[in-house]
């Protein structure tokens, strides 16, 4: 299963990236012995210039195009933004503005955010959840907000594990459905079908 973490953190190191990494690791723990989870991280701060150019000229640069393809092909997403002015950051929103409108349709998404105070925790419900509902993603019930005082405190680990378990369950279901559809509708090339026939059967083809 392919899991993509979209991080809008700006600093290095970044608490936003740290939260994304911890969530991704928890998703891996939620699928033990079942399937491998391939994790790719998209750092939006590295794409800021290409995102701006995409708005002005309508073309995605090489790095931005690769990030868009990774997000579109993912079996699940973890999206994490710092809180700016009581909402998601402009960079975070801009990335999803230049993504194809159908890229997230039906895709499992775990929403998360970081901020300096717990007063901004409702950003998950009044900003992020409506955004991804509009994009027709399947947003897991548990969002994760981490204020400065949450790091190392009780409660954050439990929220991370619960949200990651919900995302892993949705990803497993989606992956199983894809395999079933692929198996049922797999097209066998004519040359391969012909090679499987006996000489007498081939003569009559």
Would you kindly provide a brief summary of this structure?
The protein is an alpha/beta fold. The chain is built from 8 helices and 7 strands; from the N terminus they run βαβααββαβαββααα.
Say what the CATH topology is: Rossmann fold
What count of domains describes the coordinates? 1
The first-to-last residue Cα distance is 41 Å
How is the biggest beta sheet arranged?
Answer: 7 strands, mixed
On the 0 to 100 scale, the average pLDDT is 89
Structural class, by secondary structure, is alpha/beta
What Rg do the Cα atoms give? 21 Å
Strand content: 15-25%
Write out key terms for the chains shown:
7 strands, flavoprotein, alpha/beta, about 20% strand, FMN reductase, about 200 residues, seven-stranded mixed sheet, oxidoreductase, FMN_Rdtase-like_dom
Question: How does this model look, in words?
Answer:
It is a single chain. The protein is an alpha/beta fold and 205 residues long. Strand 1, helix 1 and strand 2 form a beta-alpha-beta unit. It has eight helices and seven strands. The protein has helices at 15-29, 48-57, 62-73, 90-97, 123-134, 156-184, 190-195, 199-203, and strands spanning 2-7, 38-43, 76-84, 87-88, 108-115, 138-139, 144-147. It starts with a strand and ends with a helix. Strands 1, 2, 3, 4, 5, 6 and 7 form a seven-stranded mixed β-sheet that branches. It has one domain: 3-Layer(aba) Sandwich (Rossmann fold). InterPro entries: CE1759_FMN_reduct (IPR023932), Flavoprotein-like_sf (IPR029039), FMN_Rdtase-like_dom (IPR005025), NAD(P)H-dep_FMN_reductase (IPR051814).
